[in-house]
């Protein structure tokens, strides 16, 4: 036991909690990467299995007529799962790297304004990276397990281990519900909303700068729609959460995911712009790589970004039905 033990004060008195949060914020970004990594390894296993497993025939005619069945990767519903994981993973990687760069700037830049802007961004995005990438890490581990059918449930292929490993990342370093509350309850309002306003401004300017570029239209239109939904949700919170804090709590998880969708959509819009520029320059033998990026970016915009409207509808429904029933009901 520690009776009579001597303690040594490190740093200033009462500075411990602040120091603990420095550690926690780094750990939260690390756990976000854990979610992303599990999503990626589960996806890689699922793609490999989908190319190998023979079951059923393609709806558009046999693709492997010499075999007893086609590989399941020919089926649109299997593609839906694989493309969803791929589109999230690549944007998640970009988001993690973007946040890492901002973190370096926040620590090392000699320019006070740059340092502050990067620090604002890192604080804002930490609960999003942790909460969204780990929620998706689990969803995708289950999705990849489903691609294996019954072979995903039994232990032989290791898919159920990915599901178990992804589950803890949603809980530790602050359960994801708490990340969402951190975003809505603390990060949005900090310094008069400086961080979130800067984020909106950057995305709005990107959409405006690329508005007349027709090749960018599939990306900028979907991103702008998502940004509008996010700004509407933020305004709804400003108008409805102060007077009734349960509205903020009821909105928080949907708001965190809405934020994540828009941030990931921004990553895809930038990757699409970069891929188009590389292809225009001749791509130096890497055209298939950039073409694949553009298809995946379109998939994200068409199939994943529309979820921002659902999230906004849930947020603006408020807390009333959530809180209406007594605990005994
Ligand atoms: C395997 C494992 C390893 C761990 N490793 C460590 C470690 O190394 N170091 C360490 O310090 N901790 C560690 N933890 C603890 C971990 O960080 C906590 O379990 C986690 O933060 C959740 O806290 P809790 O278990 O007390 O849940 P609770 O706080 O009881 O939360 C339960 C549920 O209620 C929700 N909830 C709680 N309060 C609110 C609120 N005000 N509003 C809305 N919803 C709320 C939460 O989101 C959660 O869904 C570990 C846990 C596990 C399982």
Topology:
Blueprint: H1 16-52, H2 76-108, H3 112-147, H4 150-153, H5 159-169, H6 176-187, H7 194-209, H8 217-240, H9 245-280, H10 287-304, H11 307-315, H12 320-324
Helix pairs in contact: 1-2, 1-3, 1-5, 2-3, 2-9, 2-10, 3-5, 3-6, 3-7, 3-9, 6-9, 7-8, 8-9, 8-10, 8-11, 9-10, 9-11
Bound molecules: flavin-adenine dinucleotide.
Defining key terms:
329 residues, mainly alpha, Butyryl-CoA Dehydrogenase, subunit A, domain 3, 2 domains, binds flavin-adenine dinucleotide
Task: Provide an overview of this structure.
By secondary structure, the chain is mainly alpha-helical. The chain folds into two domains: 22-174, Butyryl-CoA Dehydrogenase, subunit A, domain 3 (Up-down Bundle); 194-320. Helix content is 73%, strand content 0%. It contains twelve helices and no strands. The protein has helices at residues 16-52, 76-108, 112-147, 150-153, 159-169, 176-187, 194-209, 217-240, 245-280, 287-304, 307-315, 320-324. Helix 2 crosses helix 9 (245-280) and helix 9 packs antiparallel against helix 10. The radius of gyration is 22 Å and the shape is globular. 39% of the residues are buried. The site of flavin-adenine dinucleotide (FAD) has 9 residues, from helix 6.
Short recap of the structure:
The chain has 329 residues and is an all-alpha fold. The protein has helices at residues 16-52, 76-108, 112-147, 150-153, 159-169, 176-187, 194-209, 217-240, 245-280, 287-304, 307-315, 320-324.
- Runs with pLDDT <50, length 5+? none
Q: Over the alpha carbons, how many angstroms does the gyration radius reach?
A: 22 Å
Largest sheet: none
| CATH class categorisation of the largest domain | Mainly Alpha
Count of discrete alpha- or pi-helical segments spanning 4 or more residues: 12
Instruction: State the CATH topology of the largest domain.
Output: Butyryl-CoA Dehydrogenase, subunit A, domain 3
How far apart are the termini? 46 Å
